[in-house]
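Quick entry, no commentary yet.
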Amino acid sequence: MKLLLDFLPLILFFVAFKGAEGNPDAAAAFATQHFGFLVQGGIVGAKEAPVLLATVVVMLATLAQAAILKLRGKKIDLMLWISLTLVVVLGGATVWFHNETFIKWKPTGLYWAMALTLWISLAAFGKNLIKAMLGEQLPLPDAIWAKLNRAWVLFFAAMGVLNLYVAYNFSTSAWANFKVFGVTGLIVLFTVAQSLYLGKHLPPQEEDSKS
């Protein structure tokens, strides 16, 4: 349930974008009629309609995500607060100014915020957040946890740069595909490679005592 809730805004963004991209004139008319008051000038063009509608959808979905957690008495973690702030500010700017550049910066802002959080937590406060999350399941030396934290910092920093490269060098449609499939694939590959590395440093399991 939590995994679905975490990915829901991304999924809805992609579905809304692809649906509007397939019929941009109808999407523009719909956006103008229902969301024209949010847009500078009050009119949404066919070219910008897909990303504007998808942005409105992801803003609503992220707000709903936070609201559902709050209503269920669950804690809203720091990353969701950062994501919510970024999507409201940058998404709002995208819609108002008819400019997709703002929402394209949102993933980079989130990745860099994650990288900074991991780095500052360890450098300034001596707290390894990766160890805090996984330490009970993985008995590893502190040196390995430090490397793991550094690896995630570098990964998130690189993902932020890569997102901007795709955003500025490819079409919005290609960027949307990368945002869903490319990013997910890279995270899976990085996690698998990391798991293989960690497997070499886990202590051998004790053999069950023979009766």
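second:
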Amino acid sequence: MKMKKIDHIGIAVKSIDNALNLYKNLLGLEVTGEEVLEDRGLRVVFVQVGETRIELLEPLNENSEISGFLAKRGEGIHHIAYEVENVQEMINKSKELGIKPLSDEPKDGAHNTKVAFLHPKTTNGVLTELVEHR
């Protein structure tokens, strides 16, 4: 089991359309994907920076996964995601090491991935996402 690379950096925004003014119009980054994750209350857009992507996260409603984050902290870096070979194995290993996953099972993520998050209280204050590409 090992980490392959940084998969993406998640940035919580109030409006993806407004955020693209920076990422697409000023920096000239290419939009490589857009999805609506209804069950998680999210609209996500990916922009490519070299081998890494930036994931812009916009809430669809006040109960989305990032609504509380935006209300408490405002816009900004939400998480760092690492590509791994097997998310379930990483969840199991994290528990053995005293690193707390937010759930015992992976969830469906954007772009046909399986994902799990590790609690920031056990990851040096950084919400950490583990991503397995299918």
